[in-house]
Sequence to fold (257 residues):
Amino acid sequence: MNKKYLWLIMGLVPILLFWFIAGPIRQDLAYHNFADKRHFCGVPNSFDVLSNIPFIFTTLLGLFIILKKDYPRLASHNYYIIYFISVSFVGLGSGYYHWNPNSTTLIWDRGPMTVSFMTFCSLILSERGYPRLAKQIFWPLLIGGILSVIYWAATDDLRPYALVQFYPLMCLPFVLIKLKGPGTKWLWYALIFYILAKVFEHFDKQIFSILGEQLSGHSIKHLSSAVSTFMIALKLIYQEKLPVKESEIEEDFSHVS
Fold:
């Protein structure tokens, strides 16, 4: 069997198993009950709202770097632009959601997140030897990501959204180990900070209590996620700045051991 199709099957099998075994996953309404409810200067849930501001600065830095006239045009150039723009909207959407946390405003947080997740998948494939494959799957991934949020909003079933967020996260270590590409250490740093962000999010109330109710786990989650994006910007600064020519890329999976 062609290895390209083998990898495709290996990717689809866990998705199908998760879909049929897990059953519908409902949105826990207690999720909206965050630990830090303090108001300052007329801003409700101030720290959870304002801790999204670093997203804006990190994405502006990333856009400044990738759009510089003297920066080599990579095969993944456009993916970086879409990624940084979508993350900036994550910051805005998350701030809007935390201003008034409920399942309706949460759509504006999760929508941009799916765009950033799916764009990042194409970005990684493009940089690690498969720019044509990245182009082929970009729009299906993007549309699928957006539809996962629409499906959740319409049915209160989080399964598609969970796959969009966590499946690429689980696959990334394998990709970084198996496929060579630029700036690998910065991608590891980005992954580590994002995983830490999910840990901080889970222990929102416990961290708020440990820190003397000065800063909650969810606020730190936003900061850690912003650092993860900052690692991607640093990757652009310090990685080998060699443009990738698509004509020089091997298009099958035969070199993946």
